[in-house]
Amino acid sequence: MTASTESRSERVDLRMTPAAKRTLQRAAAVANKTLTEFLLDRGLTAAHETLADRRAFVLDKGQWSEFMARLDAPPADNLRLRALLARKPAWEP
């Protein structure tokens, strides 16, 4: 089921100043949308842009080669990590 065919059953409560609400209502009216439609549309756009920055990145050929070489290289020895992993977990007696 896509987001456009799902029923709207979830709520989000927002606390804001009266001035902030009036500004959002004016912006929604200018966009010919309800306040809910406006906030959902703008919020989802911002969310998609934020998440896109963390899902995809573009590298040129040289950067890609270096990236792949680093992924293929064995990890450097890390004594502090080794000591941490050797410790007995706190939840075990």
Write a brief caption for the model:
The chain is mainly α and 93 residues long.
Key phrases:
single chain, 93 residues, mainly alpha, 4 helices, 0% strand, elongated
What's the alpha carbon Rg, rounded to whole Å? 24 Å
Shape: elongated
Order of helices and strands: HHHH
Task: Report the strand count.
Answer: 0
Structural class label: mainly alpha
Q: Identify low-pLDDT runs.
A: none
How many helices? The count is 4
For the sheet with most strands, the description reads: none
**Average pLDDT metric:** 91
Assign a percent range to the helix content: 55-70%
Between the first and last Cα atoms, what is the distance in angstroms?
A: 48 Å
- Sheet-strand content, in percent, reads under 5%
Number of domains: 1
Your description of this structure?
This protein is an all-alpha fold and 93 residues long. The protein has one domain (18-86). It has four helices and no strands. The protein has helices at residues 18-30, 35-55, 61-72, 79-86. Helix 1 crosses helix 2. The longest helix has 21 residues, at 35-55. It is elongated. The mean pLDDT is 91.
Which helices and strands appear, and what pairs or packs with what?
Elements: H1 18-30, H2 35-55, H3 61-72, H4 79-86
